[in-house]
Amino acid sequence: MEGLREKPKITPIESSGQELSPEMREHFDSLIKEASSHYWTFDKLGNWSKFYHDWEENNLAFKKTFLEVRKIWVKMKEGDTNFKEFFKDKIRDDLNAKAYEAYRYFTLYQDLYGVGDYKFLSEILDHEAVWTNSDGSLMHNLLQAMGESKSQDCVATIIKYIDHVLSPEYKRKSHIDSDLDNAISAMINIIGADKTCDILDSLAEADNTLKGWLEKNKIKAKIKNGSIKFYLFGSHRVEEFDLVTENERLATLETELEEFEKNPPPPKKHKMSPDMFGSPFKDLDKNENDDWIIPGPYISETNKTKEAISKPKEKVSHTESLLDDNAIRWERGRLLNLYGRFKPKAEKPIGMTTGNYLDGMTATLGIGVSSPDHYLGILNGVIDEKNIRKEGEELPTLKEVEEAYQVVAVAFARGLSLGILERRVDDAISEIDRAKDFIGSCAEKFDDPTQISFLLSLTDQLGQLQVFLSEQVAVTPPPEIPESAQSFLITHPSTKRVREVADFRDLLAEKIKWYIANDLHHNLQSIQLKIENVGTEDEKIVPVSGPSFGRLKSIIEEYKRGIELYKKVEQSDVPVYWEARESLVKDFDSKRNVVFGRDGRYFFTALKASEFGQRRSVQKYVVITSSMVGHHDQRRKDMATKYLHQNGVTLDFNFIDTGFSGTIPEFAIRALADADNTHLSHDEVNSKIKLLSSSHPGRAQIARRHGSNAAQTIEDRPKSIDRPDHLVLDENGKVYPAINPNPVKEQLRAWVVEHVSFRNFVPKLDYDHLPAELKISPETLKRLKEKGLISDQLPEKTVDDILLDVEKESEENSEDNEWMTRTALDTRVEGKLTSFMEKHLDDISKEKQGEILKDAMRLYEVSRDKVAPVVLDFARWCLERAKPGQKVLFLARDGLAPWIAARMLVRQGKFPGITEDQLKYAHLSRNITWQEDETTLKQYLSQLGVEDDGEDLLTVDVGMFGAIHQSLQELYPQKKVNSLYLISASRDEGIEGYLSDVKKGTGSIDPIWKSIPGNPAVHFIEDTFSGFYGSTQGLEKSEDGTIKPKLGVPYSREVYLKRLAAIDGIVDHILSLEPGDPQKNSAELNVYLASQFKEDKKYIMVPHE
């Protein structure tokens, strides 16, 4: 390759050389600097109607920002040619210096001047700093701009760029395919597909590398079939600028802003349609055979046509009824696997495009597809490469009407899936057009009028589908789903592996596609047609067996029904399960449970999910029905006993059923007791039985608040199997209930009900706060980082950022005395916490947000005014005992607040003999000092500056009993370890307490600290101010050989917000308020904890760990 290409000669691009005064340069520079901080907003400024639409739709804060940005934009445009050339030089200079601000600058430049300056576009794309950059963002923007400009003068630069991509200096080797595709697509948009192919042929003759790439990737074929085409991701066309008009617009905007501030409009309300998901579940099947009047997933009342509302059910012919009966035949006796994920499994998957759509629709003809996976791929827009025509090949000719029926059925299912499940209605209608045209062209090649009529009737079915889908264009957005139905993360406590549980709607759509794929697979193999009314004017071909279009529509309906069912189950069933679970744990200390029956499946799932990855309790599930019960039938009892033993059920379990008398659990208990020759009294049997709703006076009801109606509702929920009437013994000696599956629709609905239990009870991780040791897949990690929901930094870095932010703010407001008042601090922190909630808690109601904010602000004030003065005094007391050069270990996590206070005191120059580098935050806990080996501990502490032969060691902690102190003294026997505790309950030598010290005698201890275990005041001081991460789980060696902490379990978003408020209170007091008298500070804190805290604690406490 290198032998055929000379290495490009790179020279820096020269500036325009225009002469500007220093004042003008400074002015232009300031404009660019201001614009750079708002460059994401600039893309709306070049089109007035687009800008004004956004202006009208947004709130006051947005309008203020948007107006300021538009003023900057006008000033930049007002600079005319001088500013334009200055800006181009700015981009050139940045590229020459490889400062990498060029991407942002070029984005602004495009938003100001559009894409017309092809010479400048070419100049930038050809610069070495652009095409050798491992980040391809600027390259792709330039190619987009060239393609949009349609300037043929850009073609030479694109050719040169292709040469750069194939050169050794190119750094994006793993992206070569997509980078060349982008270049080729831009060229296609400028000069067309044919000329592009000619140029590529010419280039390939001189370059074997390019020739090989073109042949390997079949580029010419892709160009001709439309697989490679130019996609414009947002136009950069800019309207002609007129200063007079722009000044008039700015004046109008300022007037509107003033009016908006004086008379703000009422908040917008988005009212949901009254019929939205309104039908009860028991009525869902009544209209299953209706023709096209499926209540669309999200049709608003105002958008329903009169015809659609009032259209009566059409009469179903005997033939149509027979087709439906035959189409459902494959389901009988089949238990469809609906667990797991259902993704396309093509060997060489190719995305469906305009050019290969018909390849996908005709791929089933004559190849004997033996798996639903093929159809699942089609429904998801994926085609196996082997099913796409080779270059020059024609589509297969339909020789039989059965083949047309096959193609239309697949196109029909794909259209429904794309339009309803993926909500891409326009794309679905467009695809169906191609299928109609294909079938219509095939009809012209048939001679038999009856066959032609049948093909045209198939195109009519597709046309009706388009009419239905077109009604979806004006639909309302999807209704709000419960929070539990949104995506979330779970982690296995022992393996620490993280898995993202997808949005319920995505999972439901997957199941429905899998259902349809199976339906197509079975019914396309059983197509049978017959001719009715032979020899008459009404002669026609009708399907007797094969895919049913009405049935496909009814399967798609399960999407809406599934969401409806989810909400009903969460509203009525989940509260019952929560109460029942709490009763088992609190009232009966239940550690071993067996749940009975098909209707008990969902409570069992709730119990199992609530302890995911843990082994605190044993949960079992069995199916024994009333027809299996026989107290005097020894064979039945023996079979039941074997079945129970096989599932690990013994007499020490709680036997749980939905309701009402407990006959089935009693039979199971008696059978087990007889097998063990154990006699149980009636009271003993009753004590083992727990019922959600009990009609038996001696048997516990574990869902007392909900009663028999709730239990009856649960019993009536859909189930995947019919009620078994006996147990069977298989050839391996295993006992199972006799399984008779319900229809697949019922199985799908049963999956929905069970999934509600799983999602509501499985412990979730918060996106806002993920511990670092979790094993997250690269895909999940990338998705979370794109959402801005995961951080890579350790607590030390988090604290550094907090201190940097507050100190900057303090410096900026150093001359503003009002900034340091309590009222001003309250306002600032409330704004900070509100901003956090808008980013991370926007999925909960405003009312709930208000409650959370109120509690967090109450905690902030307590932290700032009551706790922080004592923390500051304690930190000062500790620093007074530190020696110059001595390492002081503030022990994680309770030592976080004193560590922050000590660092701030040192920064303020209060302890000139102490440096901030002496103050180390050490990730140590009792468990770590016990579980980690000596070598690991010493290496970690050595990284903090603690050596065997160094000075004595000083540690700082909240308290209490000195376990870590003892471990460190044993680790360094030649050193003197001293520990300073806020509250000391230790009598060990070397430990001293500040607020309370047991060694000073009980008379000197305030009553609030006399009892340590279970003391809410101790928990408050220990837990609330310990930062943003759970207890450190251990130490591990990183790739660079250093020892790093494995951070602990995550907190909920609400708890994280409270902890943030607590730390803000500490920092704000130190920066802004007078320290006060230490004795008085301690006394006030003790008084507060003994009095008002008793009322406040239910609002400001975080969970004790």
TrEMBL record:
Biased composition regions of type Basic and acidic residues, renumbered to the chain: 714-723
Domain of life where this protein originates: Bacteria
Ranges where the record places region Disordered: 1-22, 696-723
Name of the protein in its database record: Uncharacterized protein
Organism in which the protein naturally occurs: Candidatus Yanofskybacteria bacterium RIFCSPHIGHO2_02_FULL_38_22b
